[in-house]
Amino acid sequence: MKLIYVLRGQINYWFYRAIRPLIFLWSGEEAHNKLKKVGLLLASNFLGRSILRVLFYYQHKSLNTTVDGVKYDNPIGLSAGFDKDGELTDAYPLMGFGFAELGSFTGDVCPGNPGVGRRLFRLVKSKSILVWYGLNNQGAQAIAKRLKDKKFKIPIGISAAKTNNFADFDLQDSIDDYLKTVNAFTDIGHYYTINISCPNTQDGEPFVDKKNLNTLLDALDQVKQETKPVYVKMAADLEEGEINTIVDTCLKHKIDGLVLTNLTKPSMNNEYLKEELTFDKGALSGLPVQRISTKVVRHVYQRTRGKITIIGVGGVFSADDAYEKITSGANLIELITGMIFEGPQVIGEINRGLVDLLKKDGFSSIEQAVGSRNPLL
Ligand SMILES: Cc1cc2nc3c(=O)[nH]c(=O)nc-3n(C[C@H](O)[C@H](O)[C@H](O)COP(=O)(O)O)c2cc1C
């Protein structure tokens, strides 16, 4: 069986390498919209679903993990931002994902930043995407209405952000906006992520401020459901003091975990080729954020004494990348850019590689590996 998986991985890899230059002829946003349609078509019928399963699905019992009461077949999930309207949930389990975080959804309909079709830029040599979307989505109410009777085959995270339609920041309006999404999805999905870290919004990142965050989390305390974990997604480019403030505020409010991290701003980062940056707005995914997010995972794992959940995200392209974040303290992993650059088979390949890495270190489960190379001081 192992040989078949190796062969399948190689065929998929070389096939994607061959067609990638053609996909990359489209702009990032155009390619995303076209491939989404292919995914929707495949997931809509028996033949398509069988094709997805045969090409990509992989499972192994050592990858099963339970986090905050939610059972995951494997720790590799889709990160927020790929499925902004929650449309492809039938495809993800067949592609081998252990979970998927949808959104970010906002309280009101949000067209995102101007320049539709020109809001994503690939930096191929830097293995990164410059993102200038600005939270475009159909709005929490419409999306919740569509998903309300859906039976999900894997855990689903609901990422809530604040509608990015105005430059002026109003604390109460912003909190009400988050609550609109949280309340719309009361009976949908398995966990919430409160995204306070979108780098592309008109009013900046006002919830890095301790007082604002406290007020937001106070309001969330009132609506929090016992059975549904709540995580907070943090920005990549924060000072250590800012990270500590957010972590301590989250601990005070008994937030279940942190998603580490969002995109990195080019002005705060030297880990990309400057000549590839052709647009003066937006923030970077992929390799430029890999080291930063792992460093934040390591720091937060120490600060929280490994007591709350960490979802590690940023620049995961391989099993080694995922394992580094897990052994640094992450319970679960998310990715987008790895899938775009390496192809959809990368999810199964990462999971297959994780099985080997666990075995090599003498672990029989993901839980045993979490934080194993970041001993608590
Ligand atoms: C096209 C795109 C759109 C994104 N939109 C969101 C979003 O709406 N909400 C969010 O929390 N993060 C968003 N992100 C950030 C990702 O969730 C993730 O934190 C970041 O890309 C690092 O992971 P990666 O290197 O695997 O892509 C987006 C990323 C990309 C590439």
Q: Which structural category do the helix and sheet elements fall into? A: alpha/beta
Main β-sheet, spatial strand arrangement: 3-4-7-8-9-10-12-13
CATH topology, anyone? TIM Barrel
Number of separate strands: 13
> What portion of residues is helical?
40-55%
Following the backbone from N to C, one meets helices and strands in this order, namely: HHHEEEHEEEHEHEHEHEEHEHEHHH
Which range does the strand content fall in? 5-15%
Distance between the termini: 42 Å
Q: What's the shape?
A: globular
Q: Classify the oligomer.
A: single chain
Q: Over all CA atoms, what is the radius of gyration?
A: 19 Å
**How many H/I helices?**
13
Bound molecules: flavin mononucleotide
Give a description of the structure.
This protein is α/β, with parallel strands linked by helices. Helix content is 41%, strand content 15%. α6 runs parallel beside α7 and α9 packs parallel to α10. The chain is globular. Bound molecules: flavin mononucleotide. The site of flavin mononucleotide has 27 residues, from β4, β6 and α11.
Topology:
Layout: H1 2-23, H2 28-43, H3 46-56, E1 65-67, E2 70-72, E3 76-78, H4 91-94, E4 99-106, E5 120-123, E6 128-131, H5 140-147, E7 156-161, H6 171-184, E8 191-195, H7 210-223, E9 230-234, H8 240-252, E10 257-260, E11 283-284, H9 287-303, E12 309-313, H10 319-328, E13 332-335, H11 337-342, H12 346-360, H13 366-369
Parallel strand pairs: 3-4, 3-13, 4-7, 7-8, 8-9, 9-10, 10-12, 12-13
Antiparallel strand pairs: 1-2, 5-6, 6-11
Helix pairs in contact: 6-7, 7-8, 9-10, 10-12
Bound molecules: flavin mononucleotide.
